[in-house]
Write a structure and sequence with these properties.
alpha+beta, 5-stranded mixed beta sheet, two-stranded antiparallel sheet, 22% strand
Length: 174
Amino acid sequence: QDMQDYGFIPNLNMTSEEFWGETEAFRKKNYMEGILGYMYYMMYKCKEKGIPFTQEYLRSLGKNINFYKGVQNWFKRINQYGESIGVNIEHYVISSGLKDIIDGSAIKDEFKKVFACQYYFDESGNADNSYKMIVLDNGKGIGLKDDQFYDARKYKDAAFVYLYPGYTYSSVNM
C-alpha cells in the first residue's frame, strides 16, 4: 500500500481507487508529471474537504502506517549483526513518497537521512505550491523544464529537483 492509504485517503472519505483514479485523471488533463500531480492533488483535496494541509497534519499521518511483521525490530537486529562483524550499518530512505509522513512514522528514528518529496510550508504552517520532489522510475527520471519534459538522468549531479509554479527548476547536490 501507498503511505497515503493508511490515513490521508480515509480522512477524505474516499477509497484508494477513487483518490488515485481522480489524481491520475487530473494529472493527465493538466499535463502534470505524476509526482507533482499527486502532491498537488493532495493539497487540492484537503482544501476541498476543509482539512488544514500542514506539516503537523502530514506528520500525524505517519503514525497510521502499518508495517510488515518484523520491520520495526529489523533495524536493531541488523545493526547488532553489523556490530558483531565490525560493520557500521546506516539506514537511508530514498522515496518518491512524502518525507513528512515518513518523519511521523514509528521507524523514523532508524534512518540517518530521509530523501523524499516535500512541500514548502509558509509562515502559517500551510503547504505552499512549491515542492521538492524525488524522481524514481527504474533509473529514469522525468521532470519539467520550460514546459518541456526532460530526462533527469542528464543531471547526474542532482539529487533533488525543485519545481515551482511556472516550471523553473534548480538542482542541489547531495
